[in-house]
Amino acid sequence: MQIEQQLSEIQNVVDDVLKLALKNGATQAEASMSKVEGIAVSSRMQEVENVEFTNDGGLGISVYVGKRKGSASTADLNKEALTRAVEKAVDIAKYTSEDPCTGLADAELMATEFPDLDLYHPQELDTEKAIATTIEAESAALGYDPRITNSDGASYNANLGMRVYGNTHGINAGYPSSRYSLSCMVIGSQDGDMQRDYAYTVDRQAPLLQSAVSIGQEAAKATVERLGARKINTAQVPILLHKDIASSLFGHYVGAISGGSLYRRSSFLLDSLGKQIFPEWLNIEERPFIKSGLASSSFDNEGVACKDMTIVDGGKLSTYLYTTYSARKLNTQTNGHAGGIHNWLVGDTGHSDSDLLKEMGTGLYVTELMGQGVNTVTGDYSRGAAGFWVENGVIQYPVHEVTIAGCLQDMFAGIVAIGKDKDLRGSVHTGSILINQMKIAGS
Predict the structure, then answer these.
(1) Which tens digits make up the pLDDT trace of 250-259?
(2) Which domains does the chain have, with CATH numbers?
């Protein structure tokens, strides 16, 4: 079936459900439906471990009876099942407490333009090819160096899907999307020391994935480089976060400026709008309309139109991230962030990664972070880490079993430089981040 026809059919289902909701006593209603078809293949030691096929779809309906909300969902799309789902949602709403902040986003905020963002690049879900790809990645890794002695596996995933959202303000829109990924993780050993590392690639277009051979070799190279890792003494030194993990630092920023954290008063960035958080040279822009972007969309999960935004301007916090509910709790207006952020472009200082090492001089180059020791209420930060010890801008030896600690306020303000070579495999596009000083808890 043509994708346009499938989208049209789903939009018709959403339209029918919204009409049913109003007919059954709802004053407002919204419905969303997603459909995903995909394949997931994994191998280990060049043998097929799992082959999984996905063909899922489900519809969720939320109704508002005055200021009371009820929700229901169904995977059965026949008329009787849809009617029951709507009736259940309306019935639930009658028994919930009134909430003055509940309800749809304001009608004037709904998206009205839906440009083609080039998110859909379908390719046949070929099991044999997927199996061959994972085994090729593992083979390349296992053959890279005799010290690569084992594999934690390779996996290939392909998903073709579509999403439709509609509400009683009149929006009923959707789009198809595709996503492909390949990863490989291997284990190396040397003189009783065992280490592991991985590599992965992800894209909207399967032909744009890195080759299986390059992913396998990248995973093996990273693993071999970690062999002979040492513990180091406790110290206070500069930290360089590798670009593959650097986005996590801005992920904590996302959590701290999200409306839910603000109205619950559980963020260290309360009442910080317009204040200096980062160095003056740092800007962060949000660009929802990047062609083929992994976080691109013309509307959020509430139908609110996305727009280009400046998130950080000259190092200052220029906006919080609101959903409709959190905005009403804070007596402001949503800015299209129900469901997450949309392609953050983090500024840089033009440094290459080798430049950043020289700029750091002596310190810790962090390539892996472990644990969840981050408190967005206080900003306290403490996570397990591994990487490389650097002296005079030159990597000396691998390091493991250390903890890096500080507070996010100081870490943000202490960013010295950001690399120009950026990781584009997620919703935050950033290079490696050099921080002036953190505490390393070692032996």
Answers:
(1) 999 999 999 9
(2) 3-226 (3.30.2290.10), 229-443 (no CATH)
